[in-house]
Structure formats: structure tokens, C-alpha cells
Design brief:
This protein is of the alpha+beta class. 15% of the residues lie in helices and 38% in strands. Strands 1-2-3-4-5-6-7-8 form an 8-stranded antiparallel β-barrel.
């Protein structure tokens, strides 16, 4: 039991370890999103480096509506798209019911809590930009395993427009289809 607690605390500290901010002034979340647009599977296209996802490939997040928010299961494969599976479970609650664009997510049974903002969402193209409220971490997520090159280029340009250093982006390999 003590080993499990120590491991949980070590992982929690990796989630909240200090890192340089990605944007000089944090971008604001979108004015409004429909919560139904968050549901389903999202594929990781790009991300700012973070300790917990080091070596992750073929990342996915499954959002399922619950009575008080969303159950979120995040997975990736360590080292390669066929590598060992890593999984994190979270609970997301809407932190701003006016916009629905801010979520408070808790991990590891509530040991870690972090606010995430949807900075842009293009439902017609099937992608969104999600970042921590402080701009340290950012993800480009897609509703399809890969984005067409032109749409991916547009999304990365939007990340740059929001003030993030796109030179720091990691582009993990997608799952083998």
C-alpha cells in the first residue's frame, strides 16, 4: 500500500512539475463549445513536451458523458505505436458553464487536479486545441487518427497565432491502421 502511495505521489509530482510556459500571455478559451462535441475518441496529433507522456506514441483520449461531467480515459503506447500500453483515467467537470470551454480534470483518484481550456475548436475539420490554463502544456487533438496535411498545417498555424512556440511541438506517431 505504501509503495502504491509513493508511486502515485511521484506520478502526481511529474504532472505538476514546473516547466517553462509555452506562451508569453495565455490565450483565452473559445467563447462557447457544445459539450456533445467533446464526446467520443480524440487522437493526439501534436503536444508540448511533458514528463508523463515522454515516449508516448499513438495517443488517444476517450470522453464519455457522466452525470456530473465526463469520464476521460487517456492512452498511449510507450516507445512506438505497438509498444506497451499506458493508461490514465481522469474525471472532467465543466469549470465555466457559460462557455463550456474550461474543464477541471482530476487524475489518480483526485490526487492531481488541473484546469484545461479549449483554445480553438474546428468541428467542421474535426480538431481542437486544448491547453492547461497556464499555457505550459498544449495538445492538438483530432477526431480522426490523422489530419490531412493542409488541415494539420492550418491547426499548427493557429497554435502559433495563439502565441505558442511551435518549434517545441512533438508530433507522436499515430496508431497503425
Amino acid at each position: 500500500m505504501l509503495k502504491r502511495l509513493i508511486l502515485s505521489l511521484a506520478v502526481a509530482s511529474a504532472f505538476i512539475a514546473a516547466a517553462p510556459a509555452s506562451a508569453d500571455a495565455m490565450a483565452e478559451p473559445v467563447a462557447h463549445i457544445e459539450l456533445t462535441k467533446m464526446m467520443g475518441r480524440w487522437y493526439e496529433v501534436a503536444r508540448m513536451p511533458n514528463m508523463i507522456q515522454r515516449g508516448c506514441q499513438a495517443g488517444e483520449s476517450d470522453w464519455t458523458r457522466t452525470g456530473d461531467g465526463f469520464a476521460v480515459i487517456q492512452t498511449c503506447h510507450k516507445g512506438s505505436p505497438d509498444g506497451p500500453l499506458a493508461e490514465w483515467k481522469a474525471h472532467a467537470r465543466v469549470a465555466d458553464p457559460v462557455s463550456n470551454a474550461k474543464f477541471r480534470m482530476t487524475f489518480f483518484g483526485g490526487l492531481v487536479s488541473q484546469e484545461y481550456w479549449v483554445l480553438d475548436q474546428r468541428s467542421d475539420e474535426g480538431w481542437l486545441i486544448l491547453a492547461t490554463h497556464d499555457g505550459r502544456y498544449l495538445w492538438l487533438m483530432s477526431q480522426k487518427p490523422t489530419l490531412p496535411t493542409a488541415i494539420k498545417t492550418e491547426a499548427v498555424a493557429r497554435i502559433k497565432q495563439l502565441g505558442f512556440d511551435i518549434g517545441r511541438l512533438e508530433f507522436p506517431l499515430p496508431a497503425h491502421g
